[in-house]
């Protein structure tokens, strides 16, 4: 099944038609720009990124589907935090974004499994 992104930018990503300023961000070591106020998912798609994460079981590539926080196919690591829904996080100057490979744990997971109260920040 093809997994190429079906999103195409309507304008060059570094030249917003409304003249908004842009910010610089980095995805897996690749520098890119995006208009202030757009989501990380929109910025990555507009810069040609088609794989945001891979699934824990088969390793199949995934990319944003709903763009509204419902499908979780847009999970990436943002500024060192895994499991971030990139469609719900705005771009910011210097953001470091990475592909999320497979399953990620979160702080407090062991406490939840053992029945203790979890402390997740
Ligand atoms: S694209 Fe569906 S949750 Fe982000």
Describe the protein's topology.
Blueprint lengths: L21 E6 L2 E6 L4 H7 L6 E2 L6 E2 L12 E4 L2 E5 L9 E7 L7 H5 L8
Bound molecules: FE2/S2 (inorganic) cluster.
Write down the oligomeric state: single chain
Q: How many helix segments?
A: 2
Which topology of one domain does CATH recognise? Ubiquitin-like (UB roll)
Can you say what the CATH homologous superfamily of one domain is?
2Fe-2S iron-sulphur cluster binding domain, sarcosine oxidase, alpha subunit, N-terminal domain
- List all distinct small molecules, including ions and cofactors, that are bound in this structure: FE2/S2 (inorganic) cluster
- What overall geometry do the principal axes of the alpha carbons give? globular
Give the ordered list of helices and strands.
EEHEEEEEH
The helix-and-strand class reads mainly beta
Q: How many strands appear in the DSSP assignment? A: 7
Helix content: under 10%
Summarize the structure in words.
The chain has a domain of 81 residues: Ubiquitin-like (UB roll) (Roll), CATH 3.10.20.440. It is globular. It is built from 2 helices and 7 strands; from the N terminus they run E-E-H-E-E-E-E-E-H. By secondary structure, the chain is mainly beta. Strands 1, 2, 3, 4, 5, 6 and 7 form a 7-stranded mixed β-sheet that branches. A hairpin with a 2-residue loop joins strand 1 and strand 2. The structure holds FE2/S2 (inorganic) cluster. FE2/S2 (inorganic) cluster binds next to loops.
């Amino acid at each position: 099944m093809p997994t190429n992104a079906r999103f195409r930018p309507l304008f060059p990503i570094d030249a917003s038609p409304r003249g908004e300023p842009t910010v610089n961000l980095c995805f897996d070591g690749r520098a890119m720009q995006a208009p202030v106020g757009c989501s990380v998912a929109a910025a990555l798609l507009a810069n040609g990124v088609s794989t945001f994460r891979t699934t824990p079981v088969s390793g199949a590539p995934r990319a944003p589907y709903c763009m509204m926080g419902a499908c979780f196919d847009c999970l990436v690591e943002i500024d060192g935090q895994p499991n971030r829904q990139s469609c719900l996080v705005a771009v910011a100057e210097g953001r470091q974004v990475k592909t999320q490979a497979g399953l990620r744990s979160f702080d407090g997971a062991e406490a939840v499994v053992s029945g203790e109260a979890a402390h997740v920040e």
